[in-house]
Amino acid sequence: GVEVLNLTLYDQEGEVFGRPEQVELDIIIKNGLTIVCELKSSIDKAGMYVFGRKAEFYAKNQNRVVDRKIVISPMVDERAIP
């Protein structure tokens, strides 16, 4: 089956944004795979970097392996593409 979660976690140490802040994540769990998903109207290089930090924070905070990371956006700055 598929499980979709919208999580809001508190980053006390400031690992994601450099200061304590809430971190919002969309998680899809399908057949045991953990997928971190970001849906944005547009994303640039800095946004992609923050998304990566969010995924790392989730993995550490929830003690889970992130199998995939997916960004869905109609407007992606070419510098944001790895």
Description:
The chain is an alpha/beta fold and 82 residues long. The protein has a domain at 1-39 and 59-68. It contains one helix and six strands. The chain has a four-stranded mixed sheet, with helices on one face. Strands 4-6 form a two-stranded parallel ribbon. The longest helix has 18 residues, at 45-62. The radius of gyration is 13 Å and the shape is globular. The mean pLDDT is 95.
Short description:
Helix content is 22%, strand content 44%. It is an alpha/beta fold and 82 residues long.
Widest sheet, order of strands: 1-2-3-5
Head-to-tail CA distance between termini: 31 Å
Q: Given the helix and strand composition, which structural class is it?
A: alpha/beta
- Estimated share of beta-strand residues: 35-45%
Contiguous runs where pLDDT drops below 50 for at least 5 residues: none
The percent of residues in helical segments reads 10-25%
String of helices and strands? EEEEHEE
Major pleated sheet = 4 strands, mixed
- Please count the beta strands (DSSP E, at least 2 residues each): 6
> What is the average per-residue confidence, as pLDDT, rounded to a whole number?
95
Count every helix, treating DSSP H or I runs of 4 or more residues as helices.
1
Radius of gyration: 13 Å
Indicate the topology:
Layout: E1 2-11, E2 21-30, E3 33-39, E4 42-43, H1 45-62, E5 68-72, E6 75-76
Parallel strand pairs: 3-5, 4-6
Antiparallel strand pairs: 1-2, 2-3
